[in-house]
Amino acid sequence: xxxxxxxxxxxxxxxxxxxxxxxxxxxxxxxxxxxxxxxxxxxxxxxxxxxxxxxxxxxxxxxxxxxxxxxxxxxxxxxxxxxxxxxxxxxxxxxxxxxxxxxxxxxxxxxxxxxxxxxxxxxxxxxxxxxxxxxxxxxxxxxxxxxxxxxxxxxxxxxxxxxxxxxxxxxxxxxxxxxxxxxxxxxxxxxxxxxxxxxxxxxxxxxxxxxxxxxxxxxxxxxxxxxxxxxxxxxxxxxxxxxxxxxxxxxxxxxxxxxxxxxxxxxxxxxxxxxxxxxxxxxxxxxxxxxxxxxxxxxxxxxxxxxxxxxxxxxxxxxxxxxxxxxxxxxxxxxxx
Length: 337
Known about the structure:
Blueprint: E1 2-6, H1 23-36, E2 40-43, H2 51-56, H3 66-76, E3 81-84, E4 87-88, H4 94-107, E5 112-117, H5 122-128, H6 137-153, E6 157-160, E7 165-169, E8 182-185, H7 189-198, E9 201-203, H8 209-225, E10 234-235, E11 240-243, H9 247-255, H10 258-265, H11 279-282, E12 284-286, H12 288-300, E13 305-311, H13 316-329
Parallel strand pairs: 1-2, 1-13, 2-3, 3-5, 4-5, 5-8, 8-9, 9-10, 11-12, 11-13
Antiparallel strand pairs: 6-7
Helix pairs in contact: 1-3, 1-13, 3-4, 4-6, 6-7, 7-8
């Protein structure tokens, strides 16, 4: 089992209070993760503040662009893998994104994994791309992933989709990693199909175990049907982490946290149809022993790593302490392969 932590680059006011971490604190947490033996750090992607955050907080959150942030981290680390979860493809242009991704993979020595998704908040997409407000975001992600595969694999790439088009683009240098690792992020069936067709990994979010296990089977079947049955897919559920010596206290801390409020905000998008009362059971909440049991159950459902863990915390120090407890008391039970 591999482990990764979500850096607080784009989640103030959402999973964390305002103010939690500037760019220097984000780097310190990434360095802490590498020193503790984490396998990866992950950055999220937002351009504009969500309406519910504006309503709750007087001051605006600080959102640090993920690819720039990870380049900063890459320059100061040597081993840890760098990931996005997610880059919101509908807000991006594929040729520029491909150039940024290839550059980051070169700078990091082949340590980057690109997680792509629709984005949980449609209001943000409509603010940033009002000219495309009527476009199906799922189709934008499909075309974006297909475009990136062409740009990363072909010397001279062209693509003619409904929304994304380019002709005879020679993009060099290519990423160090060939084929370059792209993950589909999200719970919708379209995400699973896109991961099977174009990617090598899937990152669901807070999905109940039985549903995830069945989805993993469908992922492999979609890949087999597309002639990609030889791909060894990474399955990395993104979950909330809240460890404590007293399980009841850990549960109360989680229920009173900004991270819990963030999950509630996703009820009409990523977590649509999931029972809010089950949020604690679906995440990594409780004592180290309870979390070990939870990780074992997720592995039985097909999970290969706990990437992008959203750590419950109200400060940089609290986040670092939670990371240390996980590394010392949970991670040794499931050594990385």
